[in-house]
Design brief:
The structure is a single chain. The chain starts with a strand and ends with a strand. It is 47% helix and 10% strand. It is of the alpha/beta class. The strands form 4 sheets. Strands 7-6-3-5-4-15 form a 6-stranded mixed sheet, with helices on both faces. Strands 10-9-8-11-12-13 form a 6-stranded parallel sheet. Strands 16-14-17 form a 3-stranded antiparallel sheet. It contains 27 helices and 17 strands. This is aldehyde oxygenase (deformylating). It holds the Pfam family FA_hydroxylase.
Length: 657
Amino acid sequence: MHIKCKGSSVLAKLAELAQGGSEGAAYLRKKEGLLPITMATRPGPLTKWPWQWMGNFKYLVLAPAVLHTVHRVATKGWGDLDPAYVTMLPALLLRMIHNQIWISLSRYLMARRKNVIVDRSIEFEQVDRERSWDDQIIFNGLEFYLAYAMIPNVRLLPVWRTDGAIITVLLHMGPVEFLYYWFHRALHHHFLYSRYHSHHHASIVTEPITSVIHPFAEHVVYFMLFSIPTLTPICMGCGSVLGVVLYIAYIDFMNNMGHCNFELVPKWTFKAFPPLKYLMYTPSFHSLHHTQFRTNYSLFMPFYDYMYNTMDKSSDELYEKSLKVTDETPDLVHLTHMTTLQSTYHLRIGIASIASKPSDNPVWYSWMIWPVAWLSMVLAWVYGSSAFVIERLQMKKFKMQTWTIPRYNFQYGMNWERDSINSLIEKAILDADERGVKVLSLGLLNQAKALNRSGELFITKYPKLRVRLVDGSGLATAVVLKSIPLGTKEVFLSGSTSKVAHATAITLCEKGVQVIMNQKKEYDMLKSRLPEGRTVYLKFSNKDIPQIWIGDNINDKQQQRAPIGTTFIPTSQFPLKKIRKDCTYLSTPAMKIPQTMENVHTCENWLPRRVMSAWRIAGILHALEGWEMHECGDDMMDIEKSWSAAIKHGFVPLTKG
């Protein structure tokens, strides 16, 4: 969300919008903004979490509790632990898993656009603001341990008590829903809204984790509210461990569901039991609260909105409309695959905070989720029978999706896996063709020459394909050429056989730039493809080593031979391993994307934010320009034509030659 104003005027404007009803919402929906809202507009006391200063080390606040558990087990044995104590840590882990499942499900369905509610994009600003969703779980852990230490009854809790569970349900339906409703309405008063609640409402398009993105002070109040149904039965002597755990699971489930940006509550549920509409909200019901601001205040049970006449009159209409939205057919599909095991959680449907940064940006907890990565790889290998949607982008009215082949880099190198992988690629191509997709671009190893001859295999097998296949070599070559510094007289081509490397070398020779090679087989092959008058610019030598190197995979030994100050320019989709600190390494061929491209909140593999590989951009240009040819096999788009089209549509080079 952006507000088109600067300085302190933003603060007043947002507070005004909080009271502006549908008019304020319309302002937020329609205005093009300059200033992103990333926190409460006038932060009040206790806005920040107490451990915010600790950054990624915030989990250390739970260290005393963990150490106490270890000491207790070491001195008294496992038999000393009661059900309540044993359940605390697993309950926290289950909460994190529960939330992550909702995040992945939401992002997958949002990429398909099925039953979508608010047709707007999510950007990096929102992802960064919501990456602290686990703070409330840490807070919950501290609450557990403090309650255990301070309330004697907790240590005597049985696993289950039916009477206590009934009391919990009644207390939630009564005091909790009532008090939350009026507290929520108070939060929308301009005084509290500008200091606290505006942080939550910065997300117009909600995701499941939006539900818990609040200032610390709000969470303290929510803790007191939700303690009523959990502590009351305990104090009455009828509480139970499962009663507490299941109630928290209910809170998480309803919170996550209500903040999905797609409708998932089927119509038959309300037909089977009509009063349910007063006892359970839907994602579309709560979405109206985030777009209209002054309606639909209820926690999970809308009967107080009905009672106090604050239910949005369009709630039923939006619910019906959202259920009718079907899967979207994109203009373009980019077909990629997973690379390393870690790439499993770098997917858009993986861990949001990891996916929003380049994949070579390490995270401290990656070793903890290795088992999940291994399990995902095995499941993908055994059960992955088709490509799946992971991302949806939009550039004005032009719609794009990214589909992923459920295979990893190492599998593309196995000869006995090639037929299986080609079958998956073929299935994706035929699916795109049947759905009316205009262009399908082959990303990463899906276009490998040894696998399918840069896609030529498929157009040979299916000559009547309506979808255009693009390997992106024309634009990738253009980006490499534009990355070479102006005035360069000679370059070194390091043993490369790729389509882009050869096209780059041939173009350089045609421009009168000396291309030096030291591998005879590749030299002879390339020389045979040069016009007779230009072979003089291709030189075989083991001694003349210039400071501009281009190539697909320049290994460690080759890099060590390069002179000091060498610039390495990769012609591959995969980055070079950087082993020389006295040399410069350029990015894989890529460009910055235009501001008109929306819903970009993940990084493409190792590339920075809002940077896209040239191979992927080539597919976009192919569709935008309406080019009819397949760019596969030996066929390549005109290099200058591809470059001009990229500049025309707002793509910006990373480096200037």
